[in-house]
Amino acid sequence: MNKNMCHISKNPGRTKTMNFFAVGGEDEQGNPGRLTVLDMPGYGHKSRAEWGEEIMKYLIGRKQLVRTFVLIDSMHGLKRSDESLLQALRENAISHQIVLSKVDRILFPKGRDPTHQMLLRNATALQQTAGSIRAKLDAMNVAGPKPLGEILACSTAASLERGKWLGINNLRWAVLSATGLNEIRKQPMLLNADRVHDVASETMPETTKYR
């Protein structure tokens, strides 16, 4: 998304409001955007209790909501705040999927260009992180639907090909699939945390450039 439209910051708590983005042009009734993407404030460090209350009110009461994507920092795994949110989503039967963010910190530690063997080893570490998260989710004694689909992995700090950030196209595809708009687009090769090692082994060259 254009950075002039969607501002980002390295400092926690930068997003303080619910920000709606209409995507895809007008629908059959002339309403703007065939789908709406909503960026919400975080619920971790620098968050506020009142933000969480308003966010849950929205998630529970919004009938048009088709899926909530929960971003988990791949370097920290599931924190208590993450577990609390995921528990609330399940208890309220809110459709959700997990996305591991900042995976470049595992795949490309310290921003270096890894050798092919190092990349495979780091990919295994990412798989183990995803496996640990999935095991915790399966062990939750909570009624309600579990997270949908595979655990996705993405980064906006690294790419295997210039201009194509790791896993971002797969996240976009998951959004399209959730809304039923995937039928008009060709499915990309999925980069998910569960089989990222296989993807690395099959497709990545002997040396991979960190960008």
Structure description:
The chain is of the alpha/beta class and 211 residues long. It contains 6 helices and 7 strands. It has a 3-stranded parallel sheet with strand order 3-4-5, sandwiched between helices. Helix 4 runs antiparallel to helix 6.
What can be said about this structure in brief?
With 211 residues, the protein is an alpha/beta fold.
Strands of the largest sheet, in order across it?
Answer: 3-4-5
The arrangement of helices and strands along the chain is EEHEHEHHEEEHH
* Mean pLDDT metric: 77
Strand portion? 5-15%
Strands, count? 7
**General shape:** globular
Rg over C-alpha atoms, rounded to the nearest angstrom: 18 Å
Q: How many helices does DSSP assign?
A: 6
Low-confidence stretches: 199-211
Helix percentage: 25-40%
Structural classification? alpha/beta
The biggest beta sheet, please?
3 strands, parallel
What gap, in angstroms, lies between the N and C termini?
18 Å
Task: State the main characteristics.
single chain, 211 residues, alpha/beta, two-stranded antiparallel sheet, 14% strand, disordered C terminus
Please outline the helices and strands:
Blueprint: E1 19-23, E2 35-39, H1 49-61, E3 68-73, H2 80-91, E4 96-101, H3 104-107, H4 116-139, E5 152-153, E6 159-161, E7 164-165, H5 168-179, H6 196-203
Parallel strand pairs: 3-4, 4-5
Antiparallel strand pairs: 1-2, 6-7
